[in-house]
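Issue 218. Parser rejects a valid record. Input:
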Amino acid sequence: MTRFEQEEATIEQLARGDASATALARAYLERIERIDRAGPTLRSVIELNPDALAIAGERDRERAAGRIRGPLHGVPILVKDNIATGDRMSTTAGCLGLEGVRAAQDAPLVARLREAGAVILGKTNLSEWANFRSSNSVSGWSSRGGQTRNPYALDRSPSGSSSGSAVAVAANLCAAAIGTETDGSITSPAACNNLVGLKPTLGIVSGEGIVPIAHSQDTAGPMARTVADCARLMNAISEKPIDFTAHLGLANLKGVRIGVGRQYFGTNEKADRVIEEALPVLKDLGATLVDVELASFGKLDEAEFEVLLFEFKNDLRAFFRQHLPEAPFKTLADVIEYNARNADRMMPIFGQDLLVKAQEKGALTSKAYLAARDKCRRLARAQGIDAVVKKHRVEAIVALTSPPAWLVDNINGDLARGGCTSMAAVAGYPHVTVPAGFAAGLPVGLSFFGPANSDARLLGLAAAFERAAPHRRPPSLAA
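Output the parser choked on:
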């Protein structure tokens, strides 16, 4: 590949205005054409914004007039295609049946990006319906966008569901991107693509305008090449007056107690070795490491699944009504019927058993739903993260984010084992992953997760590790 002038450029560098917003947008659009749609054919960008260059030109005129909108002025950003944009782009969650359907208005987080000066280049591919369609799904595949490819090994999974956002950032197709997570959909693809990703505390970023799985866990969050860029994006999209850059300058970690979640070890010895080599870095920074056990480890799956099934059916109906009134679907039943009628196009690789199971669920007043929701909250919060934090007086728990990227397998579906995403996801608590090294040439991420609203502090801990052990490097884009 020819050298890209903006390769690995940070938000801070791009926002200085050394290059015009128009020049930046054009450069990134050309790179998308060169390696996403041709060349390695990453398929990370599902749709380009037809107004991107016009918006960039407006940012340039504003700069010339002395008006800087904010810290993202003129910076090219991509957003996941399950986030509503009230423009000429579609909002489809990767579903071919929604191609051409436009949202009534911007999701609040998109409006905030625009207010901060971002140039939204386009929307990213994803695991269709945010990976909540089939129990044999293939991460990064959607009927609309095809299969997103991991730029570190083109035959391996990009992970999901924010596959396109992760790959686009990793391959330098944008400055940074927005993903969404219900359980692992920001943090796992970030880890598998050598990125920093933050799943914020639930409610810090508005969930309005995001095609839902479950309101009790869904959140958008930043995916970037550095911790600082994640923090800057959070400052732009947060609904709360929090300075997410406040702890980035931590000189050391003296006095900081960090729990080591060894229950998450043991599923991949190569990845375990990377994490074992990361732990001394934290100790050298002055942190005190304490082995911890989460009493509710391994006990969440059944209750979480029940909650997701109930909420998906009910939340999706409300989303269609409010945000996609012109959509051909009004309910989950409509989606199921459309998929069945167009099975050759919609289900060439895997089916829709999760949609069918969700459709069988009742209202959110159901005793089964309420019991499952209460169990999730109790196990993940009071008997999970909160209990460990209180007992061991730790600020965060560290663990392997997810296994290294597995082979794309259209027969068996995803074959990933291990990772630590569920506890923080079910609790609605923050979780940040940062590059920790490589296992057999594949990226491995180190996770920091902790109590509610500790997002900025976790970013500070991750930044300290990042400075002491920088493992981010661009992909080779090789098979």
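Fixed in the parser; the record now loads. The longest strand covers residues 431-439.
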